[in-house]
Amino acid sequence: MVFTGIIEEVGVIRAVRRGAQSSVLTIGASDILSDVKIGDSVAVNGVCLTVTALSGDSFSADVMHETLRRSSLGALRSGSAVNLERAMPADGRFGGHIVSGHIDGTGIISTVERDDNAVWYTVKTQPSVLRYIIEKGSIAIDGISLTVARVARDSFAVSVIPHTAKMTILAQKRTGDVVNLENDCIGKYVEKLLGGGTPQGGITKELLNRFGF
Questions:
Q1: pLDDT at position 202, please?
Q2: What is the structure's pLDDT at 178?
Q3: Per-run averaged pLDDT (10 residues), the chain, 213 residues
Q4: Rounded distance between C-alpha atoms, residue 73 and residue 180, angstroms
Q5: Would the CATH topology of 9-86 be identical to that of 105-191?
Q6: CATH of the structural domain 105-191, one choice from 1.10.10.10, 3.30.10.20, 2.40.30.20, 3.40.50.720
Q7: Could you tell me the residue ranges of all domains in the chain?
C-alpha cells in the first residue's frame, strides 16, 4: 500500500476502545469517506490502518500492539484531531514522496519558531531514525510529506508553509508533542544493499571494480 504524504482531511477521534494490548479507533471524517470501503487502507497520523467498520460519517480501525508500541496512536483520546489520507490510486498524482504508512519511530517537537509566513519545527528523535534523514531529503511527520531543512546531532528541522499547517494538524502542535516519523524508504534499501545484507553479499567495492566502476 502506498501513500504520498499529502493529507486529504483532518478527522476527529470519536471513540477509543482499549483492549489488553490493542485498541479500536472510531474516527469522524467526511471527504475521504466518499469512496472508502471496509478493507481499504487509510493513513491515520501516518500509520496505515485497515477500515473495519463504516457509518455515515465515521470509520473504525483496529490498532495492534506492535503499532501502539512504535507510534503515538496510543496517546489519542476522544476529540483528538488526526491527519487522514487514503491509499494512492493507480492513476493518482504523486505530490509528496513514497510513504508506506509503516512508522520507523517517534520524535518530540523541541521548538516551534515563526519565520515570516513559515513555521520551523525542530524534532528530536533517536539515532536509528536520524541515520536516514538528510538535508533536502524527505520525511513523513504524522503522515505529512515534508522536506528536511536542517539536520543536527540529535534532531532535524522542517520549515512549513501556511497551507500545509492549515490543512493538517501541524498548526496544533506545540513544544513537547510526540509525532510519528517515517523515513524515506530509499535510504533503507541502499543501506541494505551496501551493507551486504543479501545472500550475494551486497554491493561491494570489489563488485563495482569487477564491472568497470
A1: 61
A2: 97
A3: 92 96 96 94 97 95 95 96 91 76 96 93 97 95 96 97 93 96 89 64 69 73
A4: 9
A5: yes
A6: 2.40.30.20
A7: 9-86, 105-191
- At position 32, the amino acid (one-letter code) is I
Options 2.40.50.100, 3.90.640.10, 1.10.287.130, 2.40.30.20; CATH of 9-86: 2.40.30.20
Bridge partners (DSSP) listed for residue 26: 15, 60
How many Å apart are CA 108 and CA 180, to the nearest integer?
9
Q: Can you give the pLDDT at residue 94?
A: 67
Global pTM value: 0.87
